[in-house]
From TrEMBL:
Membrane-spanning segments: none
OmpR/PhoB-type domain sequence ranges: 1-75
Protein name (record): BTAD domain-containing putative transcriptional regulator
PANTHER family tied to this protein: HTH-TYPE TRANSCRIPTIONAL REGULATOR RV0890C-RELATED, REGULATOR-RELATED
Family membership: Belongs to the AfsR/DnrI/RedD regulatory family.
DNA-binding region: 1-75
CDD domains assigned to the protein according to its UniProt record, in alphabetical order: BTAD
Keyword DNA-binding: yes
Superkingdom of source: Bacteria
Native organism: Actinomadura vinacea
Amino acid sequence: MRVPELKVRALLADLLVHEGRPVSADRLVDDLWGEDPPGNPTNTLQTKVSQLRRALGPGGRDLVVFQPVGYALRTDEIDALRFAGLLDRARATADLRTKAGLLSDALALWRGPAFGDFRDEEFARAAATRLDEQRLTALEEQAEVRLALGEHSQLADELGEPVTEQPLRERLRAAHMRALYRSGRQNEALAGYTELRQRLADELGLDPGPELVDLYQAILRQDPALAPVPAPATSAARPRTNLPVPLTDLVGRQEAVTEVRALLGSSRLVTLTGPGGVGKTRLALAAAAGLDFPDGSWLIEFAGTTGAVADAVAAELGIRDEPGSRPGVPPPDSPARLAAALRGQELLLVLDNCEHLVEPVAELVDLLLRAAPGLRVLATSQESLAVPGEVLYPVAPLDSSAAVQLFTARAAPGRTLDAESASWAEVICRRLDGLPLALELAAARVRVLGVRGVAERLDDRFRLLATAHRGRPARRQTLRAVIDWSWEQLTEPQRAALCALAAHPGGCTLEAAEAVGVDLDLLDQLVNRSMVVADPPRYRLLESIAAYCLERLEADDPTFRRRDEFYTGLAERARPHLHGHAQREWLRRLDDEALNLRAVTGSRRLAEALTWYWYLRGRHREGHRHLAAVSEGSSWEAGFAMLVGARRAEVEEFPDARSRWFMAHVYLHLGDVAAAEPLLDRALADFRALDDRWGEAAALAGRAKQAMFQGDLPTAERSGTESLAIFTDLGDRWGQLQASDILGYLAEVTGDHEHAGRLHREGLRIAEDLRLWTDVSYRLSSLGRIALLNGDPARSHEFHERGMRLAAEQSNPFAEDFARVGLGLVARRAGDLDAAERLFQESLDWNRRLEADYGMPFYGVTLILAELGFIAEQRGDAALARTLHVKGLAAAREIGDPRSVALAQEGLAGVAVLEGAAEEALRLLEEATALRESVGAPLPPAERGDVDRIRAALGDGGTVR
């Protein structure tokens, strides 16, 4: 594959850096163009994406996909991933020749520096550095394996160039020195050490590490241990070890295994931390299994230990008291005896489940590491040992993909779940937080309950996941036992704090934690014990831990009251900021607290504070449910009822101008101009009297929309422009979005497609920034309309498809229908009358249901009837075409839109041509033209296709050809 264009290659590099994760359009534009973006960055980026898809071949569209949050590259055929996979396989095998071959295959994938021309760009710099480090580490590992295989002569020459390029890497230098010495080139080996020592002193002010110093001294004295050794046979005995052989595959931890092994290569104490059941022990064993130590790798399990930890270690290693102690002289204590026994040995200790013995284990580890330079320690604990030199490796739950893979492997070995079961499996994995132990317990229930049955019973998870598994320690046989083990390690204040945090289903901030009595010190203690997940500024509990704690809280516990008061106060503080400059910030803040806000029920204060938030976020059903519970019959509840199709509401009294405006706004959304007009006029007058500029701008936007329905284009332009100016001054981006949408539609109607496209693209950026996904859908479809008018049906189809998918995801049938109509327009212009008819008929059926539910005509019906009428006319079915256009004309007159009336007349002109009535056809066309011109909206050239086709069917003398 060749990608010739620089920016397209940069786009590919940026997507590769994110390894399948979506990247927002704004981020991509910033990465590709920095402070000098193109005039139309969104459109230019879309062009680059299209070029990349073409460069990737026939499957390019499936590889570069668009999601609501941005673009992503979907492919496993990436050299970096293949490289990592080969490294994992190499490190997992004990056979030296196999290991050497896998490492060679991995290094052969490199054909130049990572990310090539873009490695110094900010977006690629970190990833390039990481890959470079992995390559060099692989090269060092390969060199050490080849030395063990006796290939020192070749290595002595081959490592010269890498050492020159990386003169300060001590591990690489050590391999080169060994290769030189074993090849009879002792002076060169010593010179290499001297060069490194001088460079370290000059450039970093450091001395070589102790391992390299020891190697230098061994070369000076020509230590026999450095002599070449015969390559070991593949059947050679493994080092002494008591590590158990796993009975199942390790899923989803390949990268973690690699990282832990790398840490053990550079650090002498690595501690895996994380909550119970996350898989710390399994990861530690997998990492240790691939490492070779001359004196072995040893597992010491502390879970059942209550006495001296040094005795437990000594017993596992087979170290006994020394005989012959003199009478009256006490023998050395266990830690000292153990330290003396390990001095001079090179081994790995895997200390498992240290959390209940943290202090004695930490003291022992500190002593042993100081006494035994060849010792490495890999510990697992729910909290840090806090020993100098310790490196922490937090073990996170499995991501969604790996969690589903593990669950499936345990629930249905060797089989693939069907689509429905796979969907339920995702629910199980999400609700069990990706905890491997919980997933395995759940999988064991599938044989009896099925996947869906397990998912539906997770609210009672502790009973569901209580089947004991023989062969496991008691503390790991059930989900409750796992959490019991962690709970027993907590103090009473820590337990109370954990229960208080469990009252926040969406996690919480420090401010919220303090509101329910959890101070910073307690929070810090729980984070350190892996009972709370910290992602500052938020803190959360895994769902199973939260459920465990909630069992311990009574329904009337004051924690709930304090929580409800905090979030109600937060919503009230947010309310005024949802209009104006701080809108984006407070929308995001309320988004973060969505689950916590939903936990507060039956509060009129909360419902009133969140009404506008619910509307902005398109959560109309949620808003209606809350408002119906606390203020049924109010103007806001009535408006939400109409938005969700619950009922058509008639409100007699309004408490203020904004509630009156909102009802008018809802009526206009549904196309009921007659009901909206008096409410809007009154609201606008009240806003101006109150000097409420936000309300004035909102009412002006409504008046502009009303004028568009009525064909009053001058009023639409004047009101829309004034509204946009006020909203811009106030910094209210939602308002800017509404006003610019009307002005964009107005520009489309008058034929200024360039201006319309500019307004819709700006609206798209605003909607994406505010995460108003329904508005994003509308803007995408609007851009699809402009692309169609500009003669780009393929681009139009893409915009409308994206808009329709997003609308469906948001469960917004209005936005979905807007996109569906656009797809119908594309299909008819492309000559696919069958597809167009199907789409328009689906839209007509939906609109008719709305008319029945709301008892009013909908504006969109006129366009749909016209399109269906044109399809019938193009097929030569004059009777059906006339019926459809007559219905369209009646609907247009009822709504009062002159342009819709003109459209129906143009359709009837086509029918007249079919019937041979040339004079009637001409009359209808002239009346339609006059009507359009009367409202200042003559038919633009890009929309004259049907009229030109009908006129072409009439001869020059006005007769039907």
